[in-house]
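Continuing from the previous page...

OK, I double-checked the sequence for C-type cytochrome biogenesis protein CcmI against my notes and this is the correct one:
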Amino acid sequence: MTMWIAGVALLAGVLGLGFAWPVLRPREVRQQRLEARDVLAEEWQALDRRQADGELTAEQHQSLQAELGQRLLNETASPAPDRPADTAASGKRWLLLGGLTTLVLTGSLYWRTGRPDLALAPPQTARSAIGDDMVQKLAARLAANPGDRAGWAMLGHSYYVLENYDGAVDAFARIAGTLSDDPDLLAEYAIALSLSSVEPKPHAARPLLEDASRLLPDNSALRVFLARDMLANGETGAAIAELEAARELEKADPLRVKFIESMIEEARHPR
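Thanks. Re-ran it with the corrected sequence; updated structure tokens here:
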């Protein structure tokens, strides 16, 4: 448990640095750092695959996560004084790094709780790492530069992590036409629409949930949110089919299966 907390804390620190640290380093140094982070990102995926294949126990997986988190933190910690001419591509890389870190954080929470809905609510450590002041500064910059697509993507993602779903909807709606190029951001927008109190909504949540689920067919949490929407509209059969597909995806995890089966039971026998 302690190792898990340490790993999450390290990853949250990386997320905060990913948003806060100026992408203002000389091009040559920045490229070296990006290449190193690309390698580390592949190692994250390899760790998850090894655990899924049974090569690593949960404890081993957590320990290696913490170690890799420290390496990621070291990669982001070197100072650099100069502003490069082209920050857009760098900003996109930072967004991808932040997305990777958030996925690891939420995936870890998913594993700990077996709750697909809670997995989509980022842990307090991630919310603290971003901070309202940081987001406000980004929002102010975008007000002066509304054509910055990567900036709106980062702002929408930040609001999503902070559970400000109304803010996430507003930011993502500005770049909705391009979100199909980034399935993870599309999923965040769809879920934010499902949870937002904004009326009228700029887009219907249901089609975006369906699109995101097609692009991310192995994302069981998306299927659960889609099933919730179907149940709310009386589409019990379709909802159960989505939940059964989600259960099949998570059959190796009894906690997740138990949660999904409780939803299936509720759908079949509503109280």
